[in-house]
Design brief:
about 70 residues, Alpha-Beta Plaits, 3 helices, about 20% strand, DUF2007, N-reg_PII-like_a/b, DUF2007 domain-containing protein
Length: about 70
């Protein structure tokens, strides 16, 4: 697995997942419930992982759809 997106914006992860699903690229979200443990909503970044073999295509899909560059890894 390779890190594709890391962001504190709660709208970017579902947007990225929808774009990737449209291209049949599986993505896995990490740190979904971390704010529950720490009590700090939106302070900890969420991460979106993809398989190593899908990384370059997945990144290209997000870039082609004007995904914010600061969230891409």
């Amino acid at each position: 697995m390779r890190l594709l997106v890391s962001t504190t914006d709660p709208t970017l992860i579902p947007f990225a997942q929808a774009l990737l699903a449209g291209e049949d690229i599986a993505a896995f979200e990490l740190d979904v419930h971390m704010s529950v443990f720490t009590g700090s909503s939106f302070l900890l970044p969420r991460r979106l992982m993809v398989a190593e073999r899908d990384y370059f295509v997945a990144r290209a899909v997000l870039v082609d759809n004007d995904f914010p560059a600061e969230a891409l890894k």
